[in-house]
């Protein structure tokens, strides 16, 4: 019903043609898991949040044109506000950049709308997300010759994602005039000017580049996401398969989504949030995690694994639910457990479902 209503709204806005995106297997799994969520809520009432009052996070192409423009205008607004972190990161020129700084600083140890990968996986460059229209998140980059994206540690032919048809500056859509300030740190394009600081936090103004890539998008089709959710009951394996098992030639849906955008900074492991579409990709990551939790909320709502450092380097203690997670000067530290419950975390400030 929810999907029908959303499709109806999009149809009335003249955005998508009837049946353009019928529910995929992951959407069906999410829909059929709602009774589990309602049962759990009945047994575990949450502070300040009920199924009826929960906000609904809506897929990009299910938003009306106006709603999409509100979203991209909000991003442009963040990009017009002064930075709070420019003393520690001279390259941070806006409030948007502040979030990129936090990600750069936290990469070695650890997001409204989302992007349902499957909808656009076959032809991402022509999709409502990247077609360059005013209702998109901006278009592909201009075509420039470049190599593909190397995947270190993967066997041939999975060691290189072939290039797409872009690679140059984005010239269409809401972010056509956007300036990228921070990074690069781990660029996947060769022509990116170097940052004046080794930590990537210096000022390095340049255009937003993309290389919308259908080869990477192919591993984000719904059957991959469905298998990820259904075949991994342990959070360690769920996380490991999601992030990719490169030595086995499996890119994973996480890397798949990042490299669907590619370019600069989206293709840069550290600086990727500097491309506004990062946030929609990571909202989908959150949605997939949420659907995974819904399969067994009693056990999965509060399951974490792995240590506090990436690949346990340098060696560190196991992460716990009481570890603090923060956004530097942007938000106070909170316990990880509060961030894992979308139905009442942070005393009910987190209260949302995905549709
Ligand atoms: C593009 O960016 C430049 C530099 O930030 C600015 O001066 C100009 O007004 C912008 N143009 C548009 C159409 O936003
Ligand atoms: C998903 O489907 C494609 C073909 O449509 C197939 O090549 C691929 O192996 C499938 N992936 C999984 C994880 O089932
Ligand atoms: C850390 O987690 C691993 C995997 O769950 C477990 O085997 C190990 O005993 C834990 N280490 C400590 C010190 O608790
Ligand atoms: Cu990511």
Notes on the protein architecture:
The protein is mainly alpha-helical and 355 residues long. The protein has one domain: di-copper center containing domain from catechol oxidase, CATH 1.10.1280. It is 34% helix and 7% strand. The chain has 14 helices and ten strands. It has a two-stranded parallel sheet. The chain has a two-stranded antiparallel sheet with strand order 2-5. β8 and β9 form a beta hairpin. The radius of gyration is 20 Å and the shape is globular. The termini are close together. The chain binds 2-acetamido-2-deoxy-beta-D-glucopyranose (NAG) (3 copies) and copper (II) ion. One 2-acetamido-2-deoxy-beta-D-glucopyranose (NAG) binds next to loops. GO terms for molecular function: metal ion binding; oxidoreductase activity. It holds the Pfam family Tyrosinase. This is Di-copper centre-containing protein. It comes from Parathielavia appendiculata. Keywords: Metal-binding, Oxidoreductase, Signal.
Integer-rounded radius of gyration: 20 Å
**Bound compounds, please?**
2-acetamido-2-deoxy-beta-D-glucopyranose, copper (II) ion
What's the CATH architecture name?
Answer: Orthogonal Bundle
CATH homologous superfamily caption: Di-copper center containing domain from catechol oxidase
The SS-based structural class is mainly alpha
Topology order in helix (H) and strand (E) letters: HHHEHHHEEEEEEHHHHHHEEHHE
- Strands ordered across the widest β-sheet: 1-10
- Work out the helix count: 14
Q: What is the third-level CATH name, the topology? A: di-copper center containing domain from catechol oxidase
The major β-sheet equals: 2 strands, parallel
Mean pLDDT: 91
Helix content estimate: 25-40%
For this structure, what is the CATH class?
Answer: Mainly Alpha
Low-confidence stretches: 1-14
N-to-C span: 10 Å
Number of strands: 10
Number of structural units classed as domains = 1
Question: What is the overall shape?
Answer: globular
């Amino acid at each position: 019903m929810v999907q029908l209503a959303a499709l109806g709204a999009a149809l009335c806005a003249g955005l998508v043609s009837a049946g353009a995106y019928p529910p995929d297997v992951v959407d069906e799994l999410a829909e059929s898991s709602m009774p589990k969520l309602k049962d759990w809520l009945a047994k575990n009432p949450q502070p300040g949040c009920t199924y009826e009052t929960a906000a609904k996070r809506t897929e990009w192409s299910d938003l009306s044109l106006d709603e999409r423009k509100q979203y991209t205008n909000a991003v442009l607004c963040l990009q017009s506000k002064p930075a709070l972190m420019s003393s520690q990161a001279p390259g941070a020129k806006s409030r948007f950049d502040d979030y990129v700084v936090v990600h750069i600083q936290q990469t070695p140890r650890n997001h409204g709308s989302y992007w349902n990968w499957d909808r656009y996986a076959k032809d991402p460059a022509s999709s409502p997300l990247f077609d360059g229209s005013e209702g998109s998140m901006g278009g592909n980059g201009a075509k420039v010759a470049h190599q593909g994206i190397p995947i270190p540690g993967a066997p041939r032919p999975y060691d290189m994602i072939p290039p797409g048809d872009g690679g140059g500056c984005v010239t269409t859509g809401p972010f056509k005039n956007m300036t990228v300030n921070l990074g690069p740190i781990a660029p996947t394009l060769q022509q990116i000017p170097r940052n004046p600081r080794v930590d990537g936090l210096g000022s390095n103004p340049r255009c937003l580049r993309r290389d919308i890539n259908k080869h990477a998008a192919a591993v984000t089709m719904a059957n991959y996401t469905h298998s990820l959710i259904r075949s991994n009951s342990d959070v360690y394996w769920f996380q490991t398969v999601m992030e990719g098992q490169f030595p086995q030639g499996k890119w994973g849906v996480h890397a798949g989504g990042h490299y669907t955008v590619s370019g600069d900074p989206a293709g840069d492991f550290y600086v990727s949030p500097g491309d506004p579409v990062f946030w929609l990709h990571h909202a989908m990551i959150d949605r997939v995690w949420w659907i995974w939790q819904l399969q067994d909320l009693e056990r999965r709502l509060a399951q974490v694994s792995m240590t506090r450092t990436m690949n346990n380097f340098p060696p560190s203690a196991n992460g716990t639910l009481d570890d603090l997670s923060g956004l530097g000067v942007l938000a106070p530290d909170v316990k990880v457990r509060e961030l894992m419950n979308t139905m009442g975390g942070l005393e009910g400030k987190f209260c949302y479902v995905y549709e």
